[in-house]
Specification:
Metallo-beta-lactamase, Chain A, six-stranded mixed sheet, 6 helices, about 25% helix
Amino acid sequence: MGEGIEIHRGIYLVGGPNLTHSEDATVFLIDCDGELVMIDSGAGRSVSRIEQAIRNLNYDPADIAAIILTHCHIDHIGGAPHFVGNFGCSLVAHELDAEAIEKGDPLQTAANLYGSVFPPTPVDVKLEGDEEILSFGRQELRCIHTPGHTPGSISVLVDREGTRVLFGQDIHGPFMRAFRSDIEAWKASMRKLLELEPDILCEGHFGIFKSKERVRSYIESYLEQYER
């Protein structure tokens, strides 16, 4: 445990159920010319392991400029207060999920399902609308609103060296009233992601899919499942 995995040049898996803790959704690190960005932060019980994975890649967690939270659930946001408190990075989330994060809502963050508590935590950058582009170093990150699992779910797209990498956490759902899920909005979101034709999909719980064909097949399999 604690060894980060390179997915594409300067893009790494640094946390997840088979790497840091069984409760963690996948956590990714992007090197934007020395300025680091994390995608999600794990459930919170493994922050030291995530830190170590980053250091083992010869990076300093103090260089993390921002954590982009793909949605408000504890397995994705639980480590954020630690990284903010210790390294001063900013938090980014869509405005429609930001309130649950800032209030530490036990239902909407799903902290109650994990026997955990998420402390109210300010969100520094609240994304609005369908898409915003954030720049770190010389890298642009497209933050795309993909509601369905939660109202403020987002996906992050990175184009690097001719390869399109999509961080599409929790494409599979689940969909629950307590999460304010919307299955029809989710279907529209998935069609939007298919139109992007990503080469690599970094999913929140079920792995990393490489090749346009594998990515498309994965997303379409869930669309077909929920069309039945």
